């Protein structure tokens, strides 16, 4: 996806791209694995099982409001991502210029925006797609990449991946990839575009404007 240009043209295309990527990652259900799973894959699967548990609970979906279901999904998924790392990498060279308070604010805004966008789209579009895991690579620098393929109803496959970093005893996702394209690069390109054409304050303003849960299509 190409970065959007201009203040009016930039309408957070990152959300649409990121939603597709995360939806595919989160469709990893309890299917046979094509490759033996190591710690990163096992931990990712554990979170996905909790998410699909909510999505597959008909009674819960019938009784809770859409907003309440999104909050439920947040509860079981937010701690699988390294939000500070995502924020730091997506803001890139502009991160070092921010105060600790500004870094905290930006991280919280980005986390809320992405979770709302990801999870509402998953809630609206989940239909049990299947994933085949091809390989898992763990480096000595406490980083890992899980590579897999999503198989849709038309039997077409899309190569997807997740980059994870070991923090303490947990493996946390900091980047999602589709067909070789990094979501972080998309975030960074569009954030840079807004800051360069306007200001960091304008970026914060747009992040705040996108905080509400969007209505179902």
Describe the protein in words:
- This protein is of the alpha+beta class.
- It has a single domain (13-209), classed as Nuclear Transport Factor 2, Chain: A.
- It has eight helices and five strands, in the order H-H-H-H-H-H-E-E-E-E-E-H-H.
- The protein has helices at 13-25, 39-55, 58-63, 66-77, 83-91, 100-125, 183-197, 200-209, and strands spanning 130-138, 143-151, 157-167, 170-178, 181-182.
- Strands 1-2-3-4-5 form a five-stranded antiparallel sheet.
- Helix 1 (13-25) runs antiparallel to helix 7.
- The chain is globular.
List keywords for this structure.
single chain; 217 residues; alpha+beta; Nuclear Transport Factor 2, Chain: A; five-stranded antiparallel beta sheet; 5 strands; globular
Number of helices: 8
**How many individual domains?**
1
Q: What portion of residues belong to β-strands?
A: 15-25%
Specify the CATH homologous superfamily: Tgt2/MlaC
Spatial strand sequence of the major β-sheet = 1-2-3-4-5
Succession of helices and strands: HHHHHHEEEEEHH
Rounded to an integer in angstroms, the radius of gyration calculated over CA atoms is 17 Å
Report on the biggest sheet.
Answer: 5 strands, antiparallel
Helix content: 40-55%
Task: Report the count of strand segments.
Answer: 5
CATH topology: Nuclear Transport Factor 2, Chain: A
Structural class: alpha+beta
Uncertain ranges: 7-12, 14-21, 23-38
Q: Which CATH architecture would you pick?
A: Roll
From the N-terminal CA to the C-terminal CA, the straight-line distance is 22 Å
Shape category: globular
């Amino acid at each position: 996806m190409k970065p959007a240009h201009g203040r009016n043209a930039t309408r957070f295309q990152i959300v649409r791209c990121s939603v597709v990527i995360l939806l595919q990652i989160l469709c990893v259900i309890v299917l046979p694995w094509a490759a033996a799973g190591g710690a990163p894959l096992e931990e990712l699967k554990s979170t996905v099982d909790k998410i699909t548990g909510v999505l597959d609970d008909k009674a819960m979906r019938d009784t809770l409001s859409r907003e309440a279901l999104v909050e439920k999904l947040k509860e079981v998924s937010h701690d699988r991502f390294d939000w500070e790392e995502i924020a730091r990498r997506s803001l890139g060279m502009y991160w070092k210029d921010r105060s600790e308070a500004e870094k905290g604010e930006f991280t919280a805004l980005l986390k809320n925006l992405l979770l709302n966008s990801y999870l509402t789209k998953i809630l609206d579009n989940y239909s049990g797609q299947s994933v085949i895991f091809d390989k898992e690579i763990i480096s000595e620098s406490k980083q890992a990449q899980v590579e897999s393929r999503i198989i849709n109803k038309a039997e077409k496959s899309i190569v997807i991946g997740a980059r994870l970093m070991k923090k303490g005893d947990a493996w946390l996702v900091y980047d999602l990839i589709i067909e070789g394209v990094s979501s972080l690069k998309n975030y960074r390109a569009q954030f840079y575009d807004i800051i360069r054409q306007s200001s960091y304050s304008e970026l914060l303003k747009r992040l705040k404007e996108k905080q509400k849960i969007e209505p179902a299509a």
